[in-house]
Write a structure and sequence with these properties.
Blueprint lengths: L1 H14 L2 H13 L3 E5 L2 H15 L4 E4 L2 H9 L6 E5 L6 H12 L3 E6 L5 H4 L3 E4 L10 H4 L1 H18 L1 H16 L4 H8 L1
Helix pairs in contact: 1-8, 2-8, 3-8, 4-5, 8-9
């Protein structure tokens, strides 16, 4: 499994267009709102991105239910961003939500392993990942680590673009939860 993950990370690094990451980061950094769409395991990845962005003061929501996601997408506009996460790029609900957001002028980003997938077709920006299936881990499951790496890279790029705002927000959010950490956790987090 570790060899497959390592290969998937190397393949993702080779596939990833850093100019597209920069475009996505610029769009998110300037957005008034970010919607993130995904189903199943991709929903978990999207939720992680939503949490990361929220911690640095980016107004972000993660939607897993197609009805709620479509309603939210219908309210997006020019200057907003929608990010769809789907390894296969074939998840109908994610495609519908991203397409709805795009139809209202939002900048659309697809995170997928398939550049010619239906999800990629409705996106303005495509971020590619790779995966290495193993006997007990199909492609979709093995795609999670590369997806998280790409979204972490995107998060860091957004944080760098919004440094002062991001730093202040991160300090405030860290302070807000500090009382729920043990003394050791608090000491370790300052190192």
């Amino acid at each position: 499994i570790m060899a497959a993950d390592t290969q998937a990370m190397n393949d993702t690094a080779a596939l990833l267009d850093l100019a597209e990451v920069e475009r996505a980061a610029a769009a998110i950094a300037g957005a008034s709102r970010v919607d993130i769409y995904g189903a199943s395991g991709s929903a978990l990845v999207g939720g992680e991105m939503q949490f990361s962005l929220h911690r640095i003061g980016v107004a972000a929501w993660a939607w897993t239910d197609v009805h709620n996601g479509l309603a939210s997408a219908a309210l997006l506009k020019v200057g907003d961003v929608a990010l769809g996460v789907s390894h296969s790029g074939q998840t109908r609900e994610t495609i519908e939500m991203l397409a709805e957001a795009g139809s209202h002028g939002a900048t659309t980003i697809a995170l997928t392993s398939f550049p010619r997938s239906p999800l990629a077709e409705v996106a303005d920006i495509i971020l590619l990942t790779a995966s290495q299936a193993t006997t007990f881990r199909p492609d979709a499951l093995s795609a999670r680590h590369p997806q998280l790496v790409v979204l972490d890279l995107l998060y860091i790029a957004v944080a760098q673009r919004t440094h002062d705002r991001a730093h202040a927000a991160f300090q405030r959010t860290a302070q807000a939860v500090a009382g729920h950490k043990t003394a050791r956790e608090s000491r370790d987090s300052r190192l």
